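Priority: medium. Attachment 1 of 2:
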């Protein structure tokens, strides 16, 4: 069945997805492309990005690959990415932060300091740098959306979640801070708590027989599209719930 891109929710929009080769990143990238967007796929695993590119190009508008490792990327690297998007498209309409780092449940006492720092950096510092670099290009859009995927704070406030749990709290705080700064501009900010999903990241904390409530990331992909579309303006500054593919 062909897609009428002119009538699709993200028709004509340019969307950058971080962690595009991850569980939700993959599902969301495919959904954004089906919804009419030109998707920029950002991640560190080149072969997985290439496979995702080919899968999307076979059924939707071909995406753009941008391999970049957020662990080692500098603010200058993000500025270069933003400049390339500006040079090629003249604006950025959406930024979806799916990238995260979690190596397993570990007591703080026994956590490798480098692993803790990596989780916090990829969860908070790097997305902040990227958003900062992209803001001038996002402002060129008449309706731009920045969406941070966040975990359930009640759950990750418990024992052993380490740097990942700390980063999730900070991401929610970042949504609030950015909304306070950008609330009266054309750039809106929101969070998405998709609920438990069957992903490689989650599998590091739960075995299958303990995680029967987890769902396929595809159920949350439509919620990503909604937040990135004009309909997402309703959730400006909020943490939306999207466990079943529709927002609450």
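Attachment 2 of 2:
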């Amino acid at each position: 069945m062909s897609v009428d891109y002119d009538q699709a929710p993200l028709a004509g929009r340019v969307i950058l997805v971080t962690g595009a080769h991850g569980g939700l990143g993959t599902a969301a990238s495919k959904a954004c492309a089906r919804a009419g967007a030109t998707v920029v796929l950002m991640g560190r695993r080149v072969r997985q990005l290439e496979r995702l590119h080919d899968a999307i190009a076979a059924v939707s508008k071909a995406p753009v690959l941008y391999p970049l490792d957020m662990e080692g990327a500098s603010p200058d690297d993000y500025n270069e990415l933003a400049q390339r998007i500006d040079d090629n498209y003249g604006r950025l309409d959406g930024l979806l932060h799916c990238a995260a780092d979690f190596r397993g449940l570990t007591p703080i006492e026994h956590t490798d300091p480098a692993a803790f720092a990596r989780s916090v950096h990829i969860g908070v510092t790097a997305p902040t740098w990227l958003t900062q670099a992209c803001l001038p290009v996002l402002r060129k859009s008449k309706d731009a959306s920045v969406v941070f995927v966040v975990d359930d704070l009640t759950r990750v406030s418990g024992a052993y979640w380490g740097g990942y749990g700390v980063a999730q709290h900070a991401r929610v705080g970042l949504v609030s801070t950015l909304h306070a700064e950008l609330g009266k501009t054309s750039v809106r900010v929101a969070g998405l708590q998709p609920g438990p999903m069957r992903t490689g990241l989650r599998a590091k904390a739960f075995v299958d027989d303990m995680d029967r409530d987890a769902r396929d990331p595809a159920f949350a992909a439509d919620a990503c599209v909604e937040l990135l579309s004009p309909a997402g303006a309703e959730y400006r500054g909020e943490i939306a719930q999207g466990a079943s593919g529709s927002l609450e």
